[in-house]
Write a structure and sequence with these properties.
The structure is a single chain. The protein has 182 residues and is mainly α. It has a domain at 8-94 and 133-171. Helices cover 65% and strands 10% of the residues. It has a three-stranded antiparallel β-sheet. The longest helix has 28 residues, at 8-35. The protein is elongated. The model has no long low-confidence stretch (mean pLDDT 90).
């Protein structure tokens, strides 16, 4: 049986990484709603069953379609989406693995069962596999919050924030009661 290795700083970093991932995913979904000129509520419903990889692929594809004539915004959005993908493996480890001592002093490593192409293998028990120090976990949490801020900045600089405001105004106008109704 594996030795229990997690302490409070690990849990705090894990929580911040999961929360930061959710913020970034929300930022991506809001960006998609602006691209599609749709209320964000509909995009959130539509994308709710998506895995992180599905959301990455759809967002990257829509960025290429929407910004086909705008190379700068297309490349920037694809870069931001790529940064998001770089965190998804760690987020998935946190959500689906147990943790064992890592190779480096004070580090921990995700341990899990990998099932691919009819083969099942235990992972996380070799000294060659990736481990994480508390500082690396904290850096990941901070990186996700910074990425969320980058998405917010992109919405403004690309003009998509204006599209969102128009979508909200249109939605509000469509749902306002007409005169003479109570």
């Amino acid at each position: 049986m594996a030795e229990y290795t997690l302490e409070s700083p690990h849990f705090e970093a894990f929580g911040r990484i999961i929360s930061g991932s959710a913020l970034v995913e929300t930022g991506i979904k809001v960006t998609l709603s602006a691209i599609m000129h749709s209320h964000s509520h509909y995009v959130h419903v539509l994308t709710a069953p998506y895995t992180a990889n599905d959301l990455y692929n759809v967002a990257k594809s829509l960025a290429k379609v929407h910004f086909s004539e705008d190379e700068n915004n297309r490349d920037l959005l694809i870069e931001l989406i790529g940064k998001y993908k770089s965190y998804t493996r760690l987020r998935n480890f946190i959500a689906h693995s147990f943790w064992v001592k890592g190779t480096r002093l004070g580090s921990i490593r995700p341990a899990y069962m990998s099932v691919r192409e009819g083969r099942a293998e235990g992972r996380g028990f070799s000294d060659e596999e990736r481990d994480y120090t508390i500082l690396e976990l904290q850096d990941a949490a901070n990186g996700l919050l910074a990425l969320y801020e980058e998405f917010k900045g992109f919405l403004k600089s690309s003009g998509l924030a204006l599209s969102m405001e128009e979508n909200i105004a249109d939605d509000n106008a469509a749902t306002e009661p007409s005169e003479g109704t109570n």
